[in-house]
Amino acid sequence: MGLEGHACSPAILAKVVSAGARLHSFGQAGIALRDVAGIPISDRQIENLTEAIGSERAQQRDRKQTQRRRRQLPVKPAN
Questions:
Q1: Which of 5, 37, 51, 67 is spaced 20 to 30 Å from 14 by Cα?
Q2: What is the SS3 assignment for 61?
Q3: Rg (CA), the chain
Q4: pLDDT of residue 1
Q5: What's the predicted TM-score (pTM) here?
Q6: Is the separation of the CB atoms in 30 and 40 below 8 Å?
Q7: How far is the CA of 37 from the CAs of 11, 21, 33, in angstroms?
């Protein structure tokens, strides 16, 4: 998970992004984070962090897929 430039700890960031991605809205994620985890965070912050980390993960996925496609399998010698 991309942690550079984020003002919260890796554990808090993971909780925020997980709630933001799994719940039906960033508002619901905010309520859950405040009530269950005691994390006071705005809906807008949840949205920004979730979208930023989601974008980073999508870029990582795309790079890996490109690397896999570019690999050439070794030619098997004929028997």
A1: 67
A2: helix
A3: 19
A4: 42
A5: 0.73
A6: no
A7: 11, 16, 5
